[in-house]
């Protein structure tokens, strides 16, 4: 049995978009393949109609095309009994016409051997292709980085827990008599290179995408949708942001900070007008 594809296995579909799809009622790949692009874009916030079409096409390609064979219906007992011809029980013949006695061994040898049943052809399991971002990074190093992150302490400034005027921001200790700088027992942990994660996993998104800072649509040229993820710069305006998102949708690239535009409905407008009149 091949593993059923899930929403997270589709290319260009992240965790945030998956949550939005589940909230809209699309919980499986089958539901996504049967959806319509315009209705799906209207339900999900921040999803354009062009990207909805690409996601639906990817979902249809991920599903197996061969339908399962239907089981043949067994005939009912009443019909089976009606088809059988009625046979009258014959009376036993006289002793003179009795059959000759045969031994058990001879009877077994005379019986025809049953034919062996043909073996069913083994179905080939379809292997799901692993994304390129998982192949480029060593998964052993990813596990090491996750374990180190769990054990890493919260680096705070010395005496921050004691005095309100001291902020939590870490600052290097320079006092000649500081017990924390001398790493005495019972003091707070100091920043060291041993807490650092492996070099191969640094500056990666939790979904193992390489983040690329983008300021214009032309910056998307040469990027791979399976490896890179787009992060729009903070100084980019609304018009250029929409152009970058549209260009990323055509290339099936993930935008980490697309932003949402809040639309005011007619009911909210009328309620605001009523409040102003009062």
Give a written overview of the molecule.
The protein is mainly α. Among the domains are: 55 residues, Orthogonal Bundle (DNA polymerase, domain 1), CATH 1.10.150; 47 residues, no CATH class; 47 residues, no CATH class. Strands 1-2 form a two-stranded parallel ribbon. Helix 3 packs across helix 4. The longest helix has 14 residues. The protein is flat, with a radius of gyration of 36 Å. The two termini are 67 Å apart.
Cα distance spanning the termini: 67 Å
Largest sheet: 2 strands, parallel
Percentage of residues in DSSP E strands: under 5%
Query: What class do helices, strands and sheet pairing give?
Result: mainly alpha
Could you state the CATH homologous superfamily of the domain at 7-61?
5' to 3' exonuclease, C-terminal subdomain
Number of strands: 2
Global shape: flat
H/E order of the elements?
Answer: HHHHHHHHEEHH
Low-confidence stretches: none
Helix content: 25-40%
* Mean pLDDT across every amino acid position: 78
- CATH classification class of the domain at 7-61: Mainly Alpha
Radius of gyration over C-alpha positions, nearest whole angstrom: 36 Å
Features:
single chain, 278 residues, mainly alpha, DNA polymerase, domain 1, two-stranded parallel sheet, 2 strands, 4% strand, flat
Summarize the structure.
The chain is mainly alpha-helical. Helices cover 33% and strands 4% of the residues. The chain contains ten helices and two strands, in the order ααααααααββαα.
